[in-house]
Design a protein that fits this description.
The chain is mainly β and 334 residues long. The protein has 3 helices and 22 strands. The N terminus is likely disordered.
Length: 334
């Protein structure tokens, strides 16, 4: 849902999948697939787990370690990519602190968790069944766990399809495959190893998150706005996607002075599973050089377009045609 580019390095995925005689998850009625969605969503938030996951896209691989702890209503998570610029991101509820140990920079933001693996459901206010057809893939064994497989086929060409495998006892998602219109897997996120319900505590991770001694702290400005107040609207709504947030924020750049962090409007949409963001900022001829589509080799697409004195960038794990519909419909009202 989701997302931000990570450094990619070659790494072999080793995920063992064996056929299991265990009973599969039943998805014959609306109530059953809604129950399944709630179960996998709550598992990603309310379970305590630790492991290593790999994202493969376009022939490239990126891996990260994750620690997720839940105590009552409090959650904290640490994600440490194993490739690219050394960094560790900590999330406590909606506060995200990213530490860059080499440059001694800490960026503290308020940010939702849209698109974070192993999370799957992005909004409880959308009827996922309006956009996807659920079907049972059967029970299997994956990475040492009994899992249930579910296929979510798109009802139209505005979104991708998914195959999801969740751990049978807890519902924690262990693997997600994103598929294009031909059924080809274009991206996969999977745990290569994971421990579920491990005895981790919030306090040690919180201490790491708050230990900012020696770091230069940057707090990008963020305020909740409406697109109308910012002077923007969509001439034609894009079917199947609902607004879930709109913010005016500064985009922090590690190597740039604070004066270069200009405000950007971020307008977020989802269909319940897929998410996309529409970024709008002042046009800068030195930075905004080319309109059109940029692919990442995986599910994430980027579409850029100049709109008068403004520059619009649509980013999301949806087909480029969907992003193009958003930037084409964008209209300046004042």
């Amino acid at each position: 849902m989701k997302r931000i580019a990570v450094g990619i390095r070659s790494l072999a995925i080793c995920v063992l999948v064996l056929v299991s005689p265990c009973a599969a998850w039943s998805l014959d009625t609306d109530a059953q697939w809604k129950q399944w969605l709630v179960r996998v969503h709550e598992a990603s938030k309310q379970r305590t787990y630790a492991g290593t996951f790999v994202v493969s896209a376009g022939g490239n691989l990126a891996s990260a370690k994750i620690w997720h702890v839940c105590e009552g209503t409090q959650q904290i998570e640490r994600v440490e990519p194993l490739s690219g610029v050394p960094r560790a991101s900590y999330r406590r509820n909606d506060q995200v602190t990213t530490l860059y140990p080499d440059s001694k920079v800490a960026i503290i933001e308020t940010r939702g968790s849209l698109g974070s693996f192993p999370g799957l459901v992005k909004s409880a206010n959308t009827n996922v069944g309006d956009h996807y057809i659920f079907s049972d893939l059967g029970a299997e064994r994956m990475a040492g766990f009994d899992v249930d497989g579910v296929s979510l086929s798109p009802r139209d060409s505005s979104r991708y399809g998914y195959r999801v495998w969740s751990e049978k006892r807890t519902g924690l998602v262990l693997q997600v495959q994103t598929m294009d219109a031909t059924g080809r897997v274009i991206e996969q996120s999977a745990f290569t190893e994971v421990q579920i319900d491990v005895p981790l505590k919030i306090a040690p991770l919180l201490q790491q998150m708050e230990n900012l001694k020696g770091y230069k702290v940057t707090r990008p400005a963020l305020r909740t706005v409406t697109p109308q107040a910012m002077g923007w609207s969509l001439k034609v709504p894009v079917a199947g996607f609902q607004q879930v947030g709109c913010y005016s924020r500064t985009v922090a750049r590690i190597e740039a002075p604070a004066s270069d962090n200009l405000p950007v409007m971020q307008w977020i949409f989802t269909d319940g599973l897929a998410t996309l963001s529409l970024f709008v900022e002042s046009f800068d001829p030195q930075r905004h050089l080319r309109e059109g589509v940029t692919g990442t080799g995986g599910a994430t697409q980027v579409v850029m377009r100049r709109v008068g004195d403004w520059w619009a960038t649509a980013v999301g794990e949806v087909p480029a045609s969907t992003l193009r519909a958003f930037v084409t419909a964008l209209e300046r009202k004042k």
